[in-house]
Amino acid sequence: MIAFVRGIVWDIREDSLIIDVNGVGYKVYVPIAAFDDMPIKGEEITLHTYMQLREDSCTLFGFEDTEQLYVFNLLLGVNGVGAKVALAVLNTLTPTDVIFAVQVNNIDVFKSVSGIGKKIAERIVMELKDKCGKAKIPAQNIHINETQAVGNHDQAVTALTRLGYNSSDAAKMVQMAMHELPQNTALETIITTALRLAAK
Predict the structure, then answer these.
(1) Segment among 18-22, 73-77, 79-83, 108-112 with least mean pLDDT
(2) What is the pTM of this model?
(3) Which of 57, 76, 174, 188 has the fewest CB atoms within 10 Å distance of its CB?
(4) Model confidence at 75: pLDDT above 80
(5) What is the pLDDT of residue 90?
(6) Cα distance between residue 5 and residue 160, in whole Å
(7) Which long-range contacts (CB under 8 A, 24 or more apart) does 49-57 make?
(8) pLDDT score recorded for residue 22
(9) Of 21, 99, 115, which is closest to residue 60 (Cα–Cα)?
(10) Which residue segments constitute the domains of the chain, with CATH numbers given?
(11) pLDDT of amino acid 141
């Protein structure tokens, strides 16, 4: 099993990279839109990989970090979700987005991903509920500052728009949440509460 690939970016395609590893070109399917910094031809890159073996093919999927790889594997465990669909999810949502959406039963987030309908979205939430229910969401992934009280409203709205809500709906959700919470509530709790209330 290939755990990672380190080499030079030889070519950049719509859904994959060709990585030159000591003169051998590996085609690695990646969530291009999820890269913090877009790959550049000629630069060295390291990708954490998942290798899919079939009778007639061997396909590599690559990710910038282990969090992406972890969520990719979670998604593959959902009945009806293949590697291309799981990749599409991570091309649209961050690992934090996925965990948030599952924890609060938000199927609309997954329906916003190309190729995912209501049935698959519901299945993702239902089948990953136990696995994501106790997952800790890294604050830095959604720009959370737990000690910052001022500006939490705007930051929460921004985080919700990243999850697929329009700014008007996000503002209403945050307002509802803040009515139920103490003034000095951490931003992460505001967002989680807003999503929980919206899912009712």
Answers:
(1) 108-112
(2) 0.69
(3) 57
(4) yes
(5) 93
(6) 34
(7) 49/2, 49/3, 49/4, 49/5, 50/76, 50/83, 51/1, 51/2, 52/83
(8) 94
(9) 21
(10) 4-63 (2.40.50.140), 66-132 (1.10.150.20), 139-198 (1.10.8)
(11) 43
Place of tokens 């599952």: 102
Amino acid found at 77? G
pLDDT band at residue 133 using 50, 70 and 90 as cut-offs: low
- The tokens describing 172, both together, are 């209403």
Q: Please, are residues 39 and 5 in contact by the beta-carbon 8 Å criterion?
A: no
Query: 139 falls in which pLDDT band (50, 70, 90)?
Result: very low
Q: What is the dihedral of CA 52, 54, 56, 62, to 10 degrees?
A: 0
Q: Record the tokens describing residue 143, joined without a space.
A: 């720009």
